[in-house]
Amino acid sequence: MTDHQTVPLQATLRWQGDAGGHLLLLDQTRLPGEVVDLPCHTVEEVWQAIKRLAVRGAPAIGCAAAYGVCLSNPDLDSALKACDYLATSRPTAVNLFWALHRMRQVAKQAAGSPTFADQLLEAALAIHAEDRQMCAAIGRHGADLFADLPEGSNFLTHCNAGALATGGDGTALSVIFEIARRGLRPHVWVDETRPLLQGARLTAWELQQRGIDCTLICDSMAAKVMQEGRVQAVVTGADRIAANGDSANKIGTYGVAVLAAAHKIPFTIAAPTSTFDLELATGEEIPIEERAKEEITHGLQTSTAPAGVSVYNPAFDVTPASLIRAIITDRGVIDPISTKSVHRFLAT
Ligand code: MRU
């Protein structure tokens, strides 16, 4: 019998040892072919791991960065420098800055204490543990939201918002896992997610590991499966949500939302409250990471474009709140979505 509770064989990230220990990351650049750990003993190694997506996904980046601070010299100056440095690794996911802000506060409070390093590690472990709990809560709220859908319903997801992207069971995939736990046999259409194939390499792998029925499609096929009436709901993660509900997520998400609207399919976002950035009024202010052109021209380890071609490679796009039916968070579901409802929801 399939056990939907089974976690991936290796945790996405875990700390080894005491405050003098190190961080182990499941190297996501090697999946699905190889399941290997990447040990990080220095702040620089964690920065590199985040930059080259060995660890990725908004909440997981936040957890990794928090642990990264624990690898600096155990003094205030070094910890603050580590925070500033790790903040330069990737610009879009706000969870990174959220986690580093917390680490900065703890470092300042613990300055000069003989237990400085222990307090930093305690804070990083707490951020990780809280994320695990937030993922579980998102799963429950999302499964409740979709409770009216019949058994065997079809969901579509984009990129990877599963255990690999978080400190827990995921955001969008946590919803799927919870629906499966309730015995409702969900089926998931997995967008391949060009150019780095997080859907094909990571989401399909995770769903297989958990025995969840899934079908991989190229991004360009989403319109067809929707047109065929084979998608009942879309659920994706988010990297940063502005005060009005506009949500940044992996490039291609906006297109999926437009398609879902055209086919009258509910498009939903699942994200922890740490993904909201109330300092930004709308999604237009969200910084969008641009990545190396080689990810498009040589993404499959071989040249797939003529040498010298001009390339534009934004890693994220912003889905306007008007296209989002509901935002599933660890504290419940935001629906309808407006600046007022988001503020009111987060204030409670
Ligand atoms: O570039 P990535 O792989 O870090 O992008 C990840 C995503 O876009 C995820 O959907 C998002 O971070 C949510 S993860 C729970």
Provide the descriptors you would attach to this structure in a database record.
348 residues; alpha/beta; Four Helix Bundle (Hemerythrin (Met), subunit A); Rossmann fold; 2 domains; 7-stranded mixed beta sheet; 4-stranded mixed beta sheet; 11 helices; 14 strands; 37% helix; globular; disordered N terminus; binds 5-S-methyl-1-O-phosphono-5-thio-D-ribulose
The tally of beta strands, per DSSP, is 14
CATH topology title of the largest domain: Rossmann fold
Q: What general outline do the C-alpha atoms trace?
A: globular
Low-confidence stretches are: 1-8
The second-level CATH architecture of the largest domain is 3-Layer(aba) Sandwich
At the first level of CATH, what is the class of the largest domain? Alpha Beta
Count of domains: 2
**What's the name of the CATH homologous superfamily of the largest domain?**
Translation initiation factor eif-2b, domain 2
What can be said about the biggest beta sheet? 7 strands, mixed
Q: What is the residue-averaged pLDDT?
A: 96
Which series of helices and strands comes N to C?
A: EEEHHHHHEHEHEHEEEHEEHEEEH
Tally of helical runs: 11
* Rg calc: 19 Å
Strand order of the largest sheet: 6-5-4-7-10-13-14
Structural class: alpha/beta
Molecules bound to protein: 5-S-methyl-1-O-phosphono-5-thio-D-ribulose
First and last CA, distance: 41 Å
- Work out the strand percent: 15-25%
Helix content: 25-40%
